[in-house]
Amino acid sequence: MATKLKPVDVVTVGVGLTGTILAKELADTGLKVVGIERGRWRDTDPDFAMPGAHDELKYVIHKELMQDLSKETITFRNAMNETALPMRQLGSFLPGEGVGGAAVHWGGLTWRFLPWDFETKSRTLARYGAKQVAEECTLQDWGVTYDELEPHFNRFEYLYGVSGKAGNLQGKIIPGGNPFEGSRSKEYPNPPLKTAYSSTLFKQAVEKMGYKPFPVPTAANSRAYKNEYGATINACVYCGYCQFFACEMGAKASPQTAVLPVLMKNPNFELRTLCNVVKINLDSEKKRAVSVTYVDSRGREFEQPADLVLLTSYVFNNVRLMLLSGIGKPYDPAANSGVVGRNYAYQTNGNVTAFFEDKVFNQFMGAGALSMMIDDLDGDNFDHTGLGFIGGGWIGAASSGARPIDFHPVPPGTPRWGGEWKKAMARYYNRAFGITTHGACQSYRGNYFDLDPTYRDAYGLPLLRMTFDFRQNEYKMSDYITKKAAEIAKAAGASRMNVNPRTGKYSIVPYQSTHNTGGAIMGADPTTSAVNRFLQSWDVHNVFAIGASAFPQNGGYNPTGTVGALTFHALEAIKTKYLKQPGPLA
Amino acid sequence: MSESRSRRNFLKSAAALGAAVPAGVAAQSKPAPHADHDKQHAQHMRAAAASARPYMFLSQAEVAFLDAAVSHLIPKDELGPGAKEAGVTYFIDQQLFGGYGTMAKKYTQGPWPEGTPQQGYQSPLTPAAVYRAGIRDTNEYCKKTYSKTFDALTRAQQDEVLKGLDGGKIELEQVRSQFFFNMLLNNTVEGFFADPVYGGNRDKAGWKLVGFPGVAAVYTPFIEKHNVPYKAQPVSIADITGKVAQVDEHGHPIHVMLDDNGHPLSSRAQRGTS
């Protein structure tokens, strides 16, 4: 029997990147906010302190900062005619657990999606006609435009101290930045990071080929920076223990560095860790949430009444809690009706490893997002006529930290083990770098989430079931851009290379990307979206589902910048409209 | 669990520091009701004191098997030590005894159909149990085929067996051969390159082989020195906690740079590099 607690104004389910920003801003207005987090408290000191922070086995192989699957996981299958089985160990993607969520171990790449990305459907139909879109593709516009989000991108970039170079400043193309980005009203708050050797070779190669390289915008700050909350983010020292790790320097912006130092001092905010929300309770008409039920680390069950419930977990739990709580109609792929679970998408990544005989790269130095990239082959930045696919991706050479358990490439034809492998691995460890092709993934009728009929979590509740595979559009796109990446490697002087476009069935085993999207998507039409343009549930108006769960399909970019912009976009609507007159905003 | 875990940690740190373990220490700190167990612990502790490598999970036969197997996966050669010399067997032992071996943080509820390759790890066995079964079955195969256990075969025969497991040509009874082999190969690479605190990568053999400096220094002054090798004495976590390595104000080691012959540069030259 749950103990009923004193009502509060706002509950955030999850205290990561989105939850901390919303909690901070709403607590500042005088509202009482409770942040409920399934994992533990974590902070730069002592949790991420040296020298233990530089332990590849602990963080990359044993995934210290990521989700504890013994309590809860997802089940997975490639297609509806298979039986989904539980993801027993982490591989393809790495959700976080604990305060700060995945924004503790992220790589820091902070993009804006293109204006085109927010209107993928209407712009594709206008330029190419319906024939360009695959039959089962459930392409949608977002219900919000880039121009509407632009000020919110700014807010997030300035909060996290993003280091980069504008390529389109108030409509004017600026040399050295990304000329394909949407027009931005302000320059980045910090200049780009320094340039690694692999980035320099990549830059020289792509310039020869007529592409437009630029340093990728990153939340690993290039200099010490004080944000609008008064929190200080330190300067990156290029240690190379970045993505999959927490930053011992407090230089990679995260909730711990950018928001929590200030939020934790606000008496209107209360943090409850090791507490797992298992249900959002609705009123009898299912129009309004009245409370959340959670279980603490001693097994006690509590009911926390609240006027506003913000789902600020990773994609999976935003969707799962909606399904478990009866918020919105579950998606039915057979009938193509219902909304919750619809349009799950992912990232279609490929890569080229370039080997050199006469150069050394010191790729163990770097930062998660230390890279030179091109955006010429992303979104609709190039003519897709006759190509048989839509979308694209960025291509880039990253120096994100080449630690040897994870990074020990060998040229094609080398055995997997033994003396010959050892010699090749020793020779090329410092004479190789990777070029990534980071591709979009469209949404399809058969790719979705629902509740698993067999497997359950530690609380006895059904796991979320993922049904997903890539489609021809994604294979063709990945093949196209990965071939271009191979041309770049050749132009950079590589003697040999491994070329790996995305092929074959999607597998949950090898790490690919923690860029899972959709399932509680936003849109202008309640019959095809779970949340409206302000990320508010169409059905239960005091529930907002914030995060990449709202992406109708995934662009060719890392999602965090756009997640940050959507967070501030929703926040503005909550502050200026919803709190004054609670009810549906669209 | 917590008892055996703390015991393990004690032994592990003792082994890492190369310290002698006084016999009976564990028994003295144990409550009375587990007298038999305590006696066993004390015996273990004495055995541990006698051995530089107190194995916690693997049997002697399994140690012999793994010593032989990992010496093929990463052999000793003119470039330097291989996996066996780097302590990879001991690393695997420590891993199997700990959270990795027992599938802590993994989802372990059934049912357990085999699934598709895309669905990943679906074995009802923990990694520790996979090793136990895989070593036993491989030895059974070797006895049947060569009338000897794996460790007693010639190197050519061992190589043949490992290739048979890798390619799936040898079928094992309790685990899929490739599943066992891939786990062994992955753990071998991990043990060769992980921080020495875990018992492998002895003398930083893996790091020295590839030129990885281990715990990172502040690289801000060096990141834009392009196409220049960064030659430093690798630094481990224990070098810092044991105050062998000097650190800066944030706890990053100050790397000792090496000349072309692998000798430390003078401190004057050191300062010049950073």
Descriptive notes:
The complex is a heterodimer of chains A (586) and B (274). Chain A has 586 residues and is of the alpha/beta class. Chain A folds into two domains: 1-42 and 93-106 and 111-159 and 254-345 and 446-467 and 516-586, FAD/NAD(P)-binding domain (3-Layer(bba) Sandwich); 172-250 and 348-439 and 470-504, Cholesterol Oxidase, domain 2 (2-Layer Sandwich). In chain A, 22% of the residues lie in helices and 20% in strands. Chain A is built from twelve helices and 24 strands. Chain A is globular, with a radius of gyration of 23 Å. By secondary structure, chain B is mostly helical. Chain B has three domains: 2-50, no CATH class; 60-206, no CATH class; 213-274, no CATH class. The longest helix of chain B has 20 residues, at 127-146. Classes of the chains: A alpha/beta (586), B mainly alpha (274). Chains A and B meet through helix 3, strand 5, helix 10 and strand 20 of A and helix 7, helix 8, helix 9 and helix 10 of B.
